[in-house]
Amino acid sequence: MRIFKGIILASMLFSVSSVVAQELPIICTISNSNEKLTYTADDLIFATRNNLIFQHDNGVLVSHIDVKAETFIQISQLKDQDYPNRPLVQFGHCSDVIASLSTWLLD
User: Fold this and answer.
1) What long-range pairs does 32-39 form, CB within 8 A, spacing at least 24?
2) Which residues make beta-bridge pairs with 87?
3) Where are the domains of the chain?
4) Contact 63/54 with Cβ under 8 angstroms?
């Protein structure tokens, strides 16, 4: 019976540790909209203590997140026939940036 309890305890600890090790995304909401954007460690190209830079779609979309203010700016290059080089700039607010970063393994 004692061995059985040890096996159950070990399996519970393993399942808790695997949940903790999962990377949480940073979720941001565009101002004046309900649209949400998700940022993951895979798209992070530069990080400092206060700033994060993300790149998506081979550089067509670049985002900056201010860690302390939990705000973001996203710039995307629109492919429009009338305005071939017109950028789209969006602003918004992010939630739980530091909590999400704490689950990322950064070099």
Assistant:
1) 33/92, 37/63, 37/72, 37/74, 37/92, 39/63, 39/65
2) 77
3) 23-101
4) yes
Residue 30's H or E segment, with its range, is: strand 26-30
Query: How would you class 97 by CB atoms within 10 Å of its CB: exposed for 0-12, middle for 13-18, buried for 19 or more?
Result: buried
Copy the structure tokens of residue 57.
């779609």
* Global pTM value: 0.72
Residue with tokens 């909401």: 29
- Which residue carries 């305890």 as its tokens? 9
Read off the pLDDT of residues 43-94 as tens digits, 9 standing for 90 and up. 999 999 999 999 987 767 899 999 999 999 999 887 666 666 778 899 999 9
